[in-house]
Design goal:
Elements (H helix, E strand, L loop, with lengths): L9 H20 L12 H31 L9 H23 L8 H24 L6 H28 L10 H4 L1 H29 L7 H26 L3 H31 L8 H26 L2 H38 L17 H23 L3 H26 L6 H4 L16
């Protein structure tokens, strides 16, 4: 990693992602969208897609552009397309959000925003997947990269389904008007998006980042293979077998495929948990840094999500409380892991950008000196506690308590984002060490022009 090239636009992806993450939470605090509105209401769809596309997908793309070359030890191919992918995704997301606002009656533009979103977003994801897939093509894939491969296939499927939803809602393709996308395609859209693109990719990246940051053994283990195979088959059952069975009118096969997918997903998570315990137990870095401590909250949220899914299925209340489950997955597991790793990735990349050129030539601060862990521990605790309360409030159908809990996640998120800004600005580094000769301070979220 020390000798690999820095992705020029990764920080721009991260900055845009954090903007949408904070913005979505602000809307939730003021009562915009679910649970104040129906789950399928346009207002809810605005918040949902600010989180899933604006925050989580941009975050994942930015991370993969930087770390996929590290996973396979080869440079990123087609780096010139990274910025066009970002611009397409941002433009498509703005069109999508504007289209939902038009459907809700909040604005009127006279522009077919949803139709434009149905084009721009798939193009943006296709460009991003093309760059990452082209980098993977022909390479000997180490174990974590295999998860990313599944993730890239999943994001393409998710983008296509999302485009069909947008085009149907826009009314631009009358042939789609008679299709029942909500019943047939929505579960696939959610499962492949959250489970395949975001979760599978996050698991793959974690198999590299956790050992790298904790100095743990990262050789492929038998349990890791089970995680991949069980998870991949579960996704295949949800994305192909169950929909096809439903299309051909065999409900028993559909139900069996979904049950088997849940069981295999549970097996995958159990063995993933065993691998995580192995990383923490066999680490060479005895003092665990805050990012690795905070990641435990995300892994606990993932385990709680699995337990909640099984409980809701057993009680027959999954449809009633699906929103609480999705909230815990999105904010506890995916967002929690994203925030915890950003807390290390941003200072790490900042250190490489600023002090890497003078490493070994001039005294430099440590990566840990770019952040202030003692004061930030409380904010991660507040974040995960607030997510837990928020999920419980949704289960108990207490919207006021949910808004209060979301206020807690917003406060913690703002504090963590502020720390990342301080890290990029080198404000925590003692002044005497901040700018040794030859070191160039980084720009906040744009690449240097020279």
């Amino acid at each position: 990693m020390m000798h690999s090239a820095l992705s020029r636009w990764t920080m721009s992806y991260f900055a845009a992602a954090l903007f949408f993450f904070v913005g979505a939470q602000v809307l939730m605090v003021v009562g915009y969208g679910f649970p104040s509105a129906a789950a399928e209401a346009p207002e809810t769809l605005v918040v949902v897609h600010m989180i899933t596309i604006g925050w989580l997908s941009l975050l994942m793309c930015g991370a993969l552009f930087q770390f996929l070359p590290v996973l396979i030890a080869r440079p990123l191919r087609g780096e010139g397309f990274v910025l066009p992918a970002l611009l397409c995704l941002l433009a498509g997301l703005v069109c999508l959000l504007g289209g939902f606002l038009e459907v809700s009656g909040a604005i009127e533009t006279g522009v077919p925003l949803l139709a434009w979103a149905g084009v721009l977003l798939p193009v943006g994801f296709a460009i991003a997947a093309g760059v990452l897939g082209g980098t993977l093509w022909g390479a000997r894939l180490p174990f974590p990269a295999r998860f990313v491969t599944v993730g890239l296939l999943s994001v393409l499927a998710t983008a296509v389904l999302g485009a069909l939803f947008a085009l149907q809602l826009s009314g631009r393709l009358p042939a789609l008007a008679e299709l029942d996308f909500r019943t047939q395609a929505l579960p696939v859209h959610i499962a492949v998006g959250l489970g395949g693109w975001l979760s599978f990719s996050a698991i793959g990246v974690s198999y590299r980042l956790l050992p790298m940051f904790m100095l743990s053994p990262d050789k492929e283990r038998r349990s890791s293979k089970i995680v991949w195979w069980a998870g991949a088959i579960a996704l295949l059952l949800m994305a192909l077998v169950a929909p096809l069975a439903s299309l051909f009118g065999t409900p028993d096969v559909t139900a069996s495929a979904r049950i088997l997918a849940v069981q295999l997903g549970g097996v995958s998570l159990i063995f993933y948990g065993a691998d995580l315990a192995f990383f923490y137990r066999h680490r060479k870095r005895r003092a665990v840094e805050l990012n690795s401590h905070a990641a435990k909250g995300a892994f606990l949220a993932l385990a709680l999500s699995a337990a909640m899914l099984l409980t809701l299925l057993a009680s027959g209340t999954l449809e009633k409380h699906a929103e609480a489950l999705l909230y815990l997955v999105a904010f506890g597991w995916l967002s929690g892991l994203g925030l915890s790793q950003l807390y290390k990735i941003v200072p790490f990349l900042t250190w490489l950008e600023c002090y890497g050129p003078v490493m070994g030539k001039k005294p430099t601060p440590r990566v840990q000196d770019l952040v202030a862990e003692p004061r930030d521990r409380v904010w991660f605790a507040v974040y995960f506690l607030s997510v837990t309360v928020g999920a419980a409030a949704l289960l108990a159908e207490q919207p006021s308590l949910f808004r209060i809990a979301t206020g807690g996640t917003l406060l913690a998120s703002l504090a963590i984002v502020s720390e990342l800004v301080l890290a990029r600005s080198l404000k925590n580094v003692p002044y005497a060490q901040r700018s040794p000769e030859g070191a160039v301070p980084p720009r906040l979220f744009l690449p240097r022009t020279n």
